Amino acid sequence: MKRRRAAVALLTALITTVSGWSAQTARAGQNDAASIVQIVAHEDDDLLFMNPDVRNSIATGTAPVSTIYLTAGEANESDPVAYAGERQLGIRLAYAQMAQVPCGADGDCWGAEELAISGHVVEHFWLQGSSAPVHLFFLDLPDGGDNTPPVRAQTLRSLWNDPNLVADTLDLVGSASWPQRYDKGDVQAVLGGLLAAVEATLVRVQDPAPDQRLLSGYTGDMPEHDSPDHITAAWFADAAVAQYAASTSRRVVLEHYRDYNISESPANLSSAETAEKTGIFDTYKAHDVSVQGEWAQSPTCKISGPAIYRCYPSRQWLRTPRTTQSVIADGTGALHAFVVESGKLFEWAENGSKVWQGPYAHGNPGGPLAAGIAVGRDQDGRIEVFGQRADTGEIVSRYQSGGGWNWISLGSPYPITPNTSPPQNSSLQLSAPAVAPNGDGRLQIFVRNGGGGISTKWQAAPNGGWSGWADMGGSNIQGTPAAMTNRDGRIELFAWSAWNTSGSEWSAANGHSTVLHWFQTAPNQPFTSNPYFPQVTPNSDLAVGMDLDGRLELLYRQLDSWDPAASTAKSYTMSLNQTSSNGVWSATSGALGGGPDQGGTGTPAVVTTGDGRILAAVRNRGGGVSVSRQGAANSPFGGWTDLGGTIVGVPAGGVDRDGRADLVVIGTNGRLYDNRQRADGSFGGWTPMGSS
Asked: Which of 363, 500, 654, 682 could join 335 in a cystine, given CB atoms 3.0 to 4.6 angstroms apart?
């Protein structure tokens, strides 16, 4: 394929953005334009670990999608240039398939050039004939598995660790510009330059601190429990996003995706979603002889050995997922919504006419914030926002004080070691916090700790300072816990736990998923665990709502099969409820709507509206929002309604002064949108919140 030499001005001209939302609801202007970017180490990491999100972004046809590959992915093959070239061709054909653009076997649907940017040249391909622009960029740095002289093994990690080191790229082009030479600063500059050129609003990256409980069988090859290339690519990407965010007026949404270790969490994609993801990967795999060999060694997903590849198509898990506990009403009934973008906290608030205003910038506590937050109200009505620093892992709070706001660190159950490599920093293994008020108004927070249990911390007095951390036990806990206060003032805490017998298939015999339950025996007292909680099998974080009669309902998502690739697995949103207010729990759960939901992944959002009915909102298969609500107070849930939209993370919601649900989401352009119930219970459509 003939390539031309071009400067960044051509790229800017090629990236013609349009709104990521309906023209009827999105305001005109630069800040409504979305641009979605993935930054990965290798030419299949996006397909394996970020799909179906990438596919959904392309399928909407409303925003440009770009992916940046740091390494050539040549591994230690005998002909590294030929192998890397085939991987590039495979990924181009897979992207054409996702965009539904016909393409010849040689990838003739793509244009190609050598793009000059930030003092270097990268390979740039753009898809011809797609509904919205699709771009692929290749830096072609050596793969971590390539140790053929003069290439240094683990080049990407070596560049990160030594700012004075330089490394040459592979030459897949054959022009006078190649190979290119990079040091650490060069890599960050090129990534930052590309983000600026495409005006990125949503950036998807890999896992910078993999869970050290997982992939224990691979520590000989991967002592950090994942590929060093994956981890280092995430570090470079995080640094580039921070650099870019500091230079632009636009807020940047950053999402981290787990990689190899998703094999040790249950499948969370339906059979239909799994088949679609597999078909896309098959197109790529036809050009990757190494993966073909590993794929052929087992017909089913197993969590060790080459069969691990079979697990990826039925899974997509975020490293630091956003939570549904980010909207709250103040003492006047006005709703406040909080979100982390560009590593900082932002707030939107309703005025007296229920019109959203904002954003109001809260900054950060001295370092970037992770995506997941939780909001609560002190006994005196002041709002507190709880989150986690992405650099140190410590839990932090932003609280109202004397008409202003302050940051405070709540520390960590572990020593905070900011100078330690992120995978070895135990504080970075904490989940986002959950919060609930004690009967006397003292707030209490809960996190999953690095050992897979629960740690908690509480206010020593209402509206006051905080206790130390206490360990509540538990094992194999996934994600963020959920907590709610009963009508009698007792907190109930829930967390889901999942594990598999090492080396076994995910099946009814070997796969395990359950809910762990703790409760206070009296208001304001210590917790006791409940060994008799009903056996249910979630594959998402949990959400809790309250019926009109005071009964709690626990909502979660699940599949009806452990292996969606081998059966017809459908996705359900389930509810398990107390049999009476403050009472015991029903022995069985039921599906909202009486059957499958509309697919997708992520935690349900739950609100109880003014008429006493619970409403649930989930992210659906297309990346939008679907809702189901009770037919009447204290009754079963009705069918699902697709509200559309294209969102990041999961929906959140609150109840306004009129008792109506107001759902809040983040758009791929970084803006917040809300969708408020009408008087008849239907929804009015997605509307931008505030001024930007």
From this structure: 654
> Left (φ > 0), alpha (ψ -120 to 50) or beta: where does 222 sit?
beta
Q: Per-residue pLDDT for 200 more than 90?
A: yes
* One-letter identity of residue 549: D
Q: What is the pLDDT of residues 166-184, one digit of tens each?
A: 999 999 999 999 999 999 9
Packed helices 228-247 and 184-198: angle between N→C axes, nearest 10 degrees? 60
Cβ–Cβ under 8 Å, residues 590 and 567 = no
Cβ–Cβ < 8 Å for 637, 657 = no
Mean pLDDT of 136-149: 92
Q: How far is residue 544's CA from residue 608's CA, in Å, rounded to a whole number?
A: 10
Picking from 326, 377, 376, 241, the residue whose alpha carbon sits closest to that of residue 689 is 326
pTM score: 0.95
DSSP letter, residue 592: G
Task: Please tell me the distance from the alpha carbon of residue 374 to that of residue 433, in angstroms, as a whole number.
Answer: 6
Q: Which two tokens stand for residue 563?
A: 């292996």
For residue 342, the model assigns a pLDDT of: 97
**661/665 Cα distance (integer angstroms):** 13
CA dist., res. 113 & res. 345, Å (int): 39
Fold that domain 327-688 belongs to in CATH? Neuraminidase (2.120.10)
Half-sphere exposure of 255 (CA within 13 A, CB side): 29
Measured at the alpha carbon of residue 645, what is the angle toward residues 316 and 547, in degrees to the nearest 5? 80
Provide Rg for the chain, Cα atoms.
Answer: 24
pLDDT in tens, 276-318: 999 999 999 999 999 999 899 888 888 877 788 899 999 999 9
- Vertex 34: Cα angle to 602 and 320 (nearest 5): 30
The tens digit of pLDDT for each residue in 328-387 reads 999 999 999 999 999 999 999 999 999 999 999 999 999 999 999 999 999 999 999 999
Number of residues that this document lists for the chain: 692
CATH T-level topology, domain 4-265: Rossmann fold (3.40.50)
Query: Which residues fall within 8 angstroms of residue 361, CB to CB, at 6 or more apart?
Result: 344, 345, 346
